[in-house]
Amino acid sequence: MLTDSDIHTITNVYRDAKKKSKHKVILKLHAKIIELTGISTEQKPMDFVDTVIKDYHFYARQ
């Protein structure tokens, strides 16, 4: 389970890495999210991280 703090950190790191084209950072972020959540996915790392962020914000508003 990810906390609000986790998502805040993930979002900031993801945005910075995406902006600066740091694919290795996104790969590490992808791996860490999978480690923390146990989610298995076939999505590309960038798509997966983006989905996690969007889904978290969607469910947090419910």
Describe this entry's structure for a reader.
The chain has 62 residues and is mainly alpha-helical. The chain contains 3 helices and no strands. Helix 1 (4-19) packs antiparallel against helix 3 and helix 2 packs across helix 3. The longest helix is centred in the first third of the chain and has 16 residues, at 4-19. The two termini are 17 Å apart. The model has no long low-confidence stretch (mean pLDDT 95).
Secondary-structure blueprint:
Elements: H1 4-19, H2 23-37, H3 45-60
Helix pairs in contact: 1-2, 1-3, 2-3
Q: Rounded to an integer, what's the Rg over CA atoms?
A: 11 Å
The H/E string reads HHH
Number of β-strand runs:
0
User: What general outline do the C-alpha atoms trace?
Assistant: globular
Mean pLDDT: 95
Count of DSSP H/I helices: 3
Q: Which structural class is indicated by helix and strand composition? A: mainly alpha
Gap from first CA to last CA: 17 Å
| Strand content range | under 5%
Q: Main sheet, how many strands, which sense, barrel?
A: none
Low-confidence stretches: none
- Binned, the helix content reads over 70%
